[in-house]
């Protein structure tokens, strides 16, 4: 992975590749991924992309919003409300599954220990307290499987399915964790 951290603010980002030279989708924008894979010719991307530095021009202007909807003193930030259980949940699952999908295929003992610690701590600090309590119980009864990326991602899928079941939602087929959270659906039927 490039050692350079993006230093051009929120609208100018470098495309990053991971240590294997593969494109790192969680590190950049989806439209950059489409551009570099040749599936779009997005004019908002400037010169020919190189491995380490693809610059994206300013995003198109935000749709105009009444000034009263903006945070006082800001021309950018809308007065959004704090997240409810659903918004928090969806964002958190996105993080958890994306994290599992980037977990090493052969983690070191230290990485395994850190992931186990992280999940335990996460279950203590998750802001929805009854969600946290149930997740903590789940972890106690089903210790996180941290020996490989495949194991962890499947464990995460099953943990999510436990919550889906509790909420009366459909079960997600864990055979598909990889296209959903790592590789995309292009190669799938
Ligand atoms: C640890 C934790 C515990 C929670 N506990 C509760 C609770 O007790 N009560 C409550 O009301 N809410 C709880 N939530 C929130 C809840 O799980 C949902 O996030 C929320 O209901 C919003 O659902 P959603 O429809 O946006 O989809 P989400 O369930 O947030 O899912 C987001 C996306 O993940 C994918 N997905 C779905 N299931 C799986 C899976 N098994 N594996 C992989 N990918 C999947 C789908 O593409 C889906 O669109 C919890 C969230 C977390 C992170």
From TrEMBL:
Enzyme Commission number(s) of this protein: 1.8.3.2
GO CC terms in record: mitochondrial intermembrane space
Gene3D superfamilies reported for this sequence: ERV/ALR sulfhydryl oxidase domain (1.20.120.310)
Classification via InterPro entries: ALR/ERV, ERV/ALR_sulphydryl_oxid_sf, ERV/ALR_sulphydryl_oxidase
Keywords: Disulfide bond, FAD, Flavoprotein, Mitochondrion, Oxidoreductase
Broad enzyme group: oxidoreductase
Catalytic reaction equation(s): 2 R'C(R)SH + O2 = R'C(R)S-S(R)CR' + H2O2
Domain of life per record: Eukaryota
Keyword Transport: no
Entry coiled-coil feature ranges: none
UniProt protein name: Sulfhydryl oxidase
Record flagged with keyword Isomerase: no
GO MF annotations in UniProt: flavin adenine dinucleotide binding; flavin-dependent sulfhydryl oxidase activity
Domain ERV/ALR sulfhydryl oxidase stretches: 81-181
Entry's localization field: Mitochondrion intermembrane space
Main location (coarse class): mitochondrion
Chain segments annotated as transmembrane: none
